[in-house]
Structure prediction request, 294 residues.
Amino acid sequence: MLTRFRPIAVAALVIAAPFAIANTQSASPPAEIDPKAAPLAQSGTGYADLADLVIAAPLIVDATIRSQVRIKPAESPGLAAGLTRYYVEADVTTLLRGADGVPPRVGYLIDVAPDPSGRLPKLKKRRVLIFARNAPTGSGQLQLVAPDAQRDWNPALETEIRGIATAALAPDAPPRITGVGSAFHVPGALPGEGETQIFLTTANGAPVSLSILRRPGERPRWAVALSEIVDEAAAPPEPRSLLWYRLACGLPRMLPPTSSAALSPDESMKASEDYRYVLTQLGPCGRTKADPVS
Prediction:
């Protein structure tokens, strides 16, 4: 039984393929596929790609595909070579994100790639998670936010999506990192002792800073603070968290020279070493597609 929703539209994507829209007798004309998105195989994606989708999608829908109609290549503008375009209708099970709800049935376009044997995947009866926005063509029609914006449903994936969405919508959500501001280094009283503080720039102007403390004979300790004051409670971000994602995917690969321009050469070198240590501890972002604006 479907949960009640206020009218809105939904769109979906298919695993390991880009997506598109087609005509059908039971739904209003579909919207265009986002031309800025490129095809991506789902199997290679990770937390960063998933967080990109969650943040970009006003609507996240759990649905089961009801039907698929193949669109002729001549009626599929922008279709990439080797792909097939379908118009898909799906029955909504749950709305994971979306302030105004969605109708019980939605339609969307999807461009599908064949499997290694050349066969096209069967979409009907698949339970999927859809990342979409309302299409301008009418109620019940959605536009996928990216070619990889439909994923096969599983409990673990839904749980992670819910966690990302909750963190992203929280009042204290970590902001998008836009760069590195000033860096400072204070040597300690003992050889090898010192502390570096690095202030980051963010999309909304919220304060974010890194602190790295070194003591002789100990591993460096570092933390990130989301306030003007760094206290004892500050710690590194949890792996596969929104704060980790913001740092791992937002920090430049080296400390900009302008950030340490006011420091002595030795202090600048120490600050750069500490910054590289933070990047090493964070590990790679893991994003497999172009950096989105989010």
